[in-house]
Amino acid sequence: xxxxxxxxxxxxxxxxxxxxxxxxxxxxxxxxxxxxxxxxxxxxxxxxxxxxxxxxxxxxxxxxxxxxxxxxxxxxxxxxxxxxxxxxxxxxxxxxxxxxxxxxxxxxxxxxxxxxxxxxxxxxxxxxxxxxxxxxxxxxxxxxxxxxxxxxxxxxxxxxxxxxxxxxxxxxxxxxxxxxxxxxxxxxxxxxxxxxxxxxxxxxxxxxxxxxxxxxxxxxxxxxxxxxxxxxxxxxxxxxxxxxxxxxxx
Length: 250
Prior knowledge:
The protein is mainly alpha-helical. The protein has nine helices and no strands. The longest helix has 45 residues.
């Protein structure tokens, strides 16, 4: 009777053991042929998760994620990867894995009945963070125009032209005054230099006003754009609470 009774648990476990051996043999055979059976590896990872061998499942999933797979298989691997990180008490890595899954399919949502409470809590946190990131990406870019820089360059060039013309006009006038005969050609040279000086003065004034106004708008619009972005501290508080709750659950 003792022998008969002792054999029942072994028989009950036999189908699972045989299945695990078959999947292992298939995976080993595929690797021996230089091929990577991602679907078979994922099945093994599921089995390791069920038997609570989370570290081995995590390592297997990381090999799957490093391979070239379909989006649907990658999504499954990322979801299980996040669950393994949750069970290994690493909520940060779990959230990142869930977010990576959402980047594959933004509408994806795991079955709440399949996940443990801690895993689903971390998924909800990851979804909030992912949605916040997407909201930031959807915002129009803050002003980055080069117009103020161009206006400033024009202002500097106008100033240099004005100072150069003024210096030339002063030199021509000094030459004109130094010659007692006051020749007409020197006066014409002075008049031309003075005309260029006046043009430089007007250009400097106009470009200076334009540059100042454009820089004011650039700074003002940039500040308004940054103030319109979602605030970091409130988001941090929002996603920090579930993390504390999950750690406390363990």
